[in-house]
Specification:
Blueprint (H helix, E strand, L loop, with lengths): L10 E6 L7 H11 L5 E6 L5 H7 L5 E6 L13 E2 L1 H6 L4 E4 L5 E4 L2 H12 L10 E4 L3 H12 L5 E4 L3 H11 L3 E4 L13 E4 L23 E4 L8 H8 L3 E3 L2 H7 L1 H8 L7 H9 L1
Parallel strand pairs: 1-2, 1-3, 4-6, 7-8, 7-10, 8-9, 10-11, 11-12
Antiparallel strand pairs: 3-5, 5-6
Helix pairs in contact: 4-5, 4-8
This protein binds 2'-monophosphoadenosine-5'-diphosphate.
Length: about 280
């Protein structure tokens, strides 16, 4: 084969535009170091007009695959050579595996990461027991709604400031997704196994999510995809009201597992050491 790389170690990375705030290099580098594996994980900033061309060049440079982030998670499905069912259903990909012949395989591990985080940190969580409530209807919401349905949630209530986005999401996933008015979100907590914030409210520099959990069942699990800060005002309020909470950092950590495994050949662990390494990055 021509164009063989000088680099013999397996490589992977994360592609976005911009990319400088990504925590993924710290995350994967921690695992490579911990397991003493040969390999490299880098941040790559590809401009939109060069995205596909640059991505297709990577296998020849020793790349086994990459993570994909904003703004390319949906775009990449337009030209991927194979797409997993879950990526197709979610409508976005975050993990790419290059086949030996350079073909692009696209997967989405965000919903998987969401579930694994809750399983690890709330072992008694029973997502199939009762409906779930998802706040927000953007890209992250789609992955989470898919994941909750896949775990057997009898239904998923979705509330979004812009109602039409929630309606689009509901029509995509079918009868088990129920749209709730944004100003009724608090009432829709009643009878929910799980309450999730997928909006950007509560993120550093963003307005707080002001909502109370009075209507929530005592055994509901409350989680947030925002992890900076770790304890968002949303989670803090839920905890003050006596509810069990899980922060969002674990979703980021767990979504990285399948990629690392496929590129570097070892199933990595998500533990406190990793959390600290990523928090420091
Ligand atoms: P992502 O892919 O991370 O989910 P996104 O697609 O931009 O990002 O979605 C952001 C979500 O946060 C949306 O649900 C958005 O609501 P709108 O669809 O009404 O924009 C929600 N969001 C952002 N700022 C918000 C705010 N100030 N109040 C309520 N919801 C907000």
């Amino acid at each position: 084969m021509s164009g063989m790389s000088k680099v013999s170690i397996p490589r992977a990375g994360v592609i976005g535009f911009p990319i400088k705030h990504s925590k993924s290099p710290a995350l994967h580098s921690h695992w490579l170091k911990r397991y003493g594996l040969p390999g490299e994980y880098v941040a790559l900033e590809f401009p939109p007009e060069k995205f596909e061309e640059s991505l297709r060049r990577l296998p020849r440079k020793g790349f086994k695959g990459v993570n994909i982030t904003i703004p390319y998670k949906e775009v990449v499905l337009g030209f991927a050579d194979s797409i997993t069912d879950r990526a197709a259903l979610i409508g976005a990909a975050n993990t790419i595996h290059f086949h030996a012949d350079g073909r692009i395989g696209a997967d989405n591990t965000d919903g998987y990461g969401f579930i694994q985080n809750l399983r690890q940190n709330a072992p008694d969580w029973a997502p199939s027991s009762k409906p779930a409530l998802v706040l927000g209807a953007g890209g992250a919401s789609r992955a989470i709604v898919w994941a909750l349905l896949n775990e057997g949630a009898p239904s998923v209530r979705v509330a979004n400031r812009t109602k039409i986005r929630a309606e689009k999401l509901a029509s995509h996933f079918g009868a088990k997704v129920e749209v709730v008015d944004w100003d009724r979100a608090s009432e829709a907590m009643e009878g929910a196994s799980t309450i999730v914030n997928t909006t950007s409210l509560g993120m550093e520099g963003q307005p707080e999510f002001r909502i109370d959990f009075d209507a929530a069942d005592r055994d509901t699990l409350v989680t947030d995809i925002v992890y900076a800060p770790l304890m968002t005002p949303f989670l803090k309020k839920a905890a003050e009201q006596g509810l069990n909470t899980v922060d969002g950092l674990g979703m980021l950590l767990h979504q990285a597992v399948p990629g690392f495994e496929s590129w570097f050949g070892r199933t990595p662990e998500v533990d406190e050491d990793l959390r600290q390494a990523v928090l420091k990055a």
